[in-house]
Amino acid sequence: MLIAFEGLDGSGKTTQARLLFEKLSQSYSCILTKEPTDGPIGLFARDNMKSSTNKDTMENTLLMEAFFIADRIDHVNSVIKPGLESGKVVITDRYVLSTIAYGGVVGIDTVWLAELNKSFPTPDITFLMDIDTQAAMERLKTRANKPQVFENKEFLRVARYIYKNEAQKFKNSHVIDADRSQDTIAEEIFNIVMEQMQKGH
Ligand code: TYD
């Protein structure tokens, strides 16, 4: 089973991915992974995002998303596919929907972005951690390692909108109200996963 966590920076997806991993690992063999990866292409993309000056332009974002897709090829081949083939539950913090949402914000055609991603395994469940943009920005303020890009409020508002719109096109996608306690959210997510497992996904 492949489970993807998606959402804006500050939405709590990394925490929820970890909580699900810890809970599911008590009964199943699981892998917790993330994008961008720490592989060479992922690191290059991150460095580029930090140093780039024209961050939210279409040309810069197009380049960045191309890197993220290239990083995904490597991630799918070296981690996701082998994990799924050996019967593990693979939980990924960000996946295809990140490319579609963040690329879509600057005007890149989301249908085309989806097409570029179509050879990758489809998640059995996608969780979109949905949070008010102001709340996400407040959460990020307290973070030592703040993301350098995508912190403009209007940018986040559009990203949130596209995320929600595009999530509907993914099978078994769940928009999770992320403005609640960690435990409440974790329980809701765990219940959805168990229900899906019982259906034999
Ligand atoms: P993030 O999850 O913040 O990575 P880390 O915490 O490891 O630095 O991702 C970095 C940024 O990259 C984030 O703001 C979203 C963006 N991103 C895309 O635009 N497209 C993608 O396909 C991915 C995976 C990330």
Labels describing this entry:
single chain; 201 residues; Rossmann fold; five-stranded parallel β-sheet; 5 strands; binds thymidine-5'-diphosphate
H and E order: EHEHHEHHEHHEH
What multimeric state do the chains show?
A: single chain
CATH architecture label name: 3-Layer(aba) Sandwich
Instruction: Give the averaged pLDDT, no decimals.
Output: 93
Total count of strands: 5
- Each distinct ligand: thymidine-5'-diphosphate
What is the third-level CATH name, the topology? Rossmann fold
Task: Let me know the largest β-sheet.
Answer: 5 strands, parallel
- The helix-and-strand class reads alpha/beta
Topology:
Elements (H helix, E strand, L loop, with lengths): L1 E6 L5 H12 L5 E5 L5 H12 L6 H28 L3 E5 L2 H10 L4 H7 L8 E6 L2 H9 L11 H15 L5 E5 L4 H17 L3
Parallel strand pairs: 1-3, 1-4, 2-3, 4-5
Helix pairs in contact: 1-8, 2-3, 3-4, 4-5, 4-7
The structure holds thymidine-5'-diphosphate.
Thymidine-5'-diphosphate binds next to helix 3 and helix 4.
